[in-house]
Amino acid sequence: MPLATPDFEFLQHLVAKRSGNVIAPRQQQMIEQRLQKVLVSTGLDNVDTLMTELKGTRGHTLQDRVAEAITVNETSFYRDAHLFQAMRTYFIPEAMQRNAATRTIRIWCAAGSSGQEPYSMAMVLRDHFPQLDRWNVDILVTDLSEEMLERSRNGIYSQLEVNRGLPARDLVRFFDRRGSRWQVKSELRSMLRHQRLNLIDPFPPIHAVDIVLIRNVLIYFDQPTRQSILNRIGKVLTPNGHLFIGSAETMIGMNLPYERKVIDGTVCYQT
Ligand SMILES: C[S@@+](CC[C@H](N)C(=O)[O-])C[C@H]1O[C@@H](n2cnc3c(N)ncnc32)[C@H](O)[C@@H]1O
């Protein structure tokens, strides 16, 4: 049964407050599907019971769970392949040159979803920069969704998921077969560090990072929220570090301390 308008509006408000994501009326069907998933995981009987619980004073944990369930987690390996190509040709060599003294590279995937993006970074590093074996390489993966973080930690993907963007040679080199699915080898899994982080909240202490990927998540926030997140990320970026946003995202119209550059065909931002 479709959600009643007041319930849909309540959920729009709840999601805006908990994750900052703006839900458009045309997404009502998606919300209804996600609520069904919450019913299964909570064991609640039906949407009416769920709505009553959510509106109750003890519903905070459940509210977070619903807000997390209502995120869009769409992702794929090597999404925007030119970015990973440019990591190989320019951004990683540049960071290695800059950090030769400390032999440390820090990367932050700030909305890592189920892990395809950070594992794509890890594969580039392993494949093309064997000398990094003797470096301290830190890939921090954060997301709002515990479920996505868990998927990323486990690194297990269906055939359909590995068919999306992953070259056969990487599948052979970096994955083990697990029945009908594929698991990222532990040598790559151990390169990632996972942490739940809600981008709309004040950030916990984060060590200055050389490369930040915050891709295909800004579109879900309103303009002031986007601006606040990007401002705070600027403070975490090392001097001369690089920030990357999604190919459909822009900083146009925002008052931000970044300079836009195009390097090896890839847009990046520096403070
Ligand atoms: C569409 S995915 C993008 C994944 C990946 N960066 C990519 O480009 O393929 C968006 C991710 O942002 C996360 N997200 C949404 N709102 C968030 C918030 N307030 N804080 C942290 N992560 C959030 C979602 O859980 C989801 O995993």
From TrEMBL:
Q: What PROSITE patterns does this protein map onto?
A: CHER
Class of the enzyme per the UniProt entry, highest EC level:
transferase
What EC number(s) is this enzyme filed under? 2.1.1.80
Q: Which reaction does it catalyse?
A: L-glutamyl-[protein] + S-adenosyl-L-methionine = [protein]-L-glutamate 5-O-methyl ester + S-adenosyl-L-homocysteine
Q: Which domain of life is it from?
A: Bacteria
* UniProt-listed InterPro entries: Bact_Chemotaxis_MeTrfase (IPR050903), CheR_C (IPR022642), CheR_MeTrfase (IPR000780), CheR_N_sf (IPR036804), SAM-dependent_MTases_sf (IPR029063)
Which GO terms of the molecular function aspect are on file?
A: protein-glutamate O-methyltransferase activity
Q: Which GO terms describe its biological process?
A: methylation
Where do the CheR-type methyltransferase domain residues begin and end? Answer: 1-271
> Does Methyltransferase count among this protein's keywords?
yes
Query: What is the name attached to this protein's record?
Result: protein-glutamate O-methyltransferase
Q: Give the organism, scientific name.
A: Stieleria bergensis
Q: What is the lineage of its organism?
A: Bacteria, Pseudomonadati, Planctomycetota, Planctomycetia, Pirellulales
> What is the gene called?
cheR2
